[in-house]
Structure formats: C-alpha cells, structure tokens
Write a structure and sequence with these properties.
Elements: H1 2-20, H2 22-30, H3 41-49, H4 53-65, E1 69-76, E2 83-89, H5 96-104, E3 109-115, E4 121-127, H6 130-144, E5 149-151, E6 153-159, H7 185-194, H8 204-212, H9 216-229, E7 232-239, E8 248-254, H10 258-269, E9 276-280, E10 290-296, H11 299-313, E11 320-331
Antiparallel strand pairs: 1-7, 2-4, 2-5, 3-4, 3-11, 6-9, 8-10, 8-11, 9-10
C-alpha cells in the first residue's frame, strides 16, 4: 500500500512539472549533473534541446528569478575545502523569527529551516577550518542567546539532492574519503565567484577565469579535476524542490548502536526515496546518530515511505524521531572562505 501511494505521488508530481513547459522541465531535470564544462556551455545545451543559446540563458534566468533554481553551478562535497556541520537550536516559539533572522544573517550559514521538534531551528554552517567553525557557533549562541548543538558528519552514505523530478529516482555515487584540498589564492577566488552560479553571458567560464586570474582553460580544467577527485559532488542546475512541488520533507533520525550504524546506513541509503543519508556525531542532549531525508509532495506519502523504509531495513526497534520542515528561512550554496595561512 505504501509503494502504491509513493508511486501515485511521483506520477502526480511528474505530471504537474511536465504540464508546465517541456523545455523548462528538461532544463530543470536533465542538467542537475553532467552540465557541459565547455567554452560555450549554453550552445551545447541548446544543441541538445533544439533551441538557441539565447533562449537557454533566458529560460534559466527566468527560472532563477521565479525561485525555481538557486543557481547553475557547483555542489561541493562536505568537508572537502573547509569545515561544516549541521547544527540546531532549541528556540522559544515567540523568539523564532528573531533568532532565525539572526542566524541567516551569518554568511557562513547556507541552509536554515524550522523543524517540528524541541530543537526547532536547523541550519548548516561552514567555515575555513574547525577552529573558525567553533568560533562561528559560539558567536551565534552569544548573539541569539540560544546556544547551538553541533552535529558534524561522521560518515556519509548518500548525499546528493540531484534526483529525477518526475520519478524520484536518483543517481548513486561511490563515496570515498577525500582529504581536504590545499588550494591556491586564485582557486579560492574562483570558489567565491561560483557561489552565486554562472553569469548569464556567452562564455561564463571565461568571465570567471578572468575575474579569478586563472583564464578560461584553467577554470574548466580545475572544475573537471574537482569533479573527478570528489571535491565537487556535481556541477549543474541546482533546483529548489519546494517550489517544484516537493513541499513535504522530513529529517528522519534513529539511535543505532555505534557498531551497527554503518551497516544500517548503507542499507538505508540504497533504497529509493532517500535523498540524503549519513551518520552524525551525538551529544548528551541529541542521541540520534543515523539521519536520512525523505522528500515528497505530501506529508502522508513521506510518513508512509519512512515507515516502509524502517521496516524494510530493520530500524523499527530503535529509538527514532521524525522532524518535518515547516519553514525555510535561507537556502543557498555554501560560501567558503580561504584560510589566511593557505591563501598563498
């Protein structure tokens, strides 16, 4: 019964998107990864879509203005070029608008959501290194009077929100440990330029290369290398799922014995309907170490899918919680800053 509900939901979501505009749908769906790293990328897309490069740029710019995509650009793998963590605050309900705004104002915060739990404000924070990240969280606690708990990544099983918008299928990728990169000043400048995505110009990589002092060829080579070595998870159209019909999403967590969490995490990540899955550090006040995200068009379907996954993987006996997102305060790409000692 759960699978039928899940399939029906996916069909309804796909039909809604397809009905909007076939060209827009292909731009949104087909190029979330595998974006052409070429001197004239819009022309390459236009040839595949049987339209003009001008129309490709105009359509993507309109989709961005409408809030359906955040950018066309990179998605960096966690902790490859800096330090980051998921963090949470227990905020009194009356104070939530103020605290959420204060947290979102920090440049190092790239996602900030309200969730249904005593810990009701959840955000991702990034910094050049662990010491800077700790200071950032301390500053947040001092300004908001709500000390955050930090839940850094311990082990990733599947982290990639680039899934098919019609079917919900996603691309699985091999997860391999990658050491934090040592980057040049120009590469750090390129990362900063890429934060807001490619500019709507004929040769965007040339424009960024000129601004970073790298040149077009080196920009393309660098991005290809980062994709190959795992620094980049993907490069392409970064969509906003809520604005495209995937309005229900839940962070599902379990308290699993440390000796078993890796096996359960890999099993959970292998299942359809899981868009994120990872192990995080616990605290004295947060005992849950296994996390997954489930996205859907409706709450009922997400709840049913979560129950089915727990039963199928064997997680039903472990303490658990389900935290639905209710408000999105901030959603953008992570803004990474160069450590001064490395920016040579």
């Amino acid at each position: 019964m759960d699978q039928a509900l899940h399939t029906k939901e996916l069909a309804r979501t796909g039909s809604t998107l397809l009905a909007a505009d076939a060209l827009d749908f292909r731009l949104l769906n087909d190029f979330q990864r595998g974006f052409p790293l070429a001197a004239h990328p819009w022309k390459v897309l236009a040839e595949r879509l049987n339209c003009s490069a001008t129309e490709v740029m105009a359509r993507l710019a309109c989709l961005q203005d409408a809030g359906k995509i955040s950018r066309v650009g990179p998605v960096f793998a966690p902790n490859r070029i800096g330090a980051s963590t998921l963090a949470a605050m227990a905020v009194p309900e009356a104070e939530l608008p103020r605290v959420a705004a204060q947290v979102s104002a920090f440049p190092g915060v790239n996602h900030n959501y309200r969730r249904e739990h005593r810990y009701n404000l959840w955000f991702v924070a990034s910094a050049p290194d662990e010491a800077s990240l700790a200071r950032l969280l301390d500053d947040m606690g001092a300004i908001t009077a709500c000390p955050p708990i930090a839940l850094p990544l311990v082990e990733e099983y599947h982290i990639d929100l680039g899934f098919d918008l019609a079917s919900g299928r996603r691309t699985r990728h091999a997860v391999s440990p990658v050491q934090r990169q040592s980057l040049t000043r120009s590469e750090w400048q390129l990362i900063d330029l890429l934060h807001d995505g490619l500019p709507w110009v004929e040769r965007p990589f040339q424009a960024m290369g000129d601004a970073a002092g790298l040149g077009e060829g080196r920009v393309l080579t660098t991005l290809s290398r980062w994709l190959a070595d795992g620094t980049l998870r993907r490069f392409g159209v970064v969509v906003r799922h809520r604005e495209l019909g995937w309005r229900a999403n839940a962070m599902c967590v379990w308290q699993v014995p440390e000796a078993q969490v890796s096996a359960f995490g890999h099993a959970l990540a292998a299942e359809d309907g899981v868009s994120l899955c990872y192990r995080r550090r616990t605290t004295s006040d947060w005992p849950y170490n296994l996390f997954c995200m489930i996205h859907g068009q409706g709450r009922e379907a997400v709840e049913a899918r979560r129950a089915a996954l727990a039963a199928q993987v064997g997680l039903t006996t472990f303490p658990a919680a389900v935290l639905f997102s209710t408000d999105c305060y901030k959603q953008c790409g992570a803004r990474y800053q160069a450590p001064l000692e490395r920016a040579a």
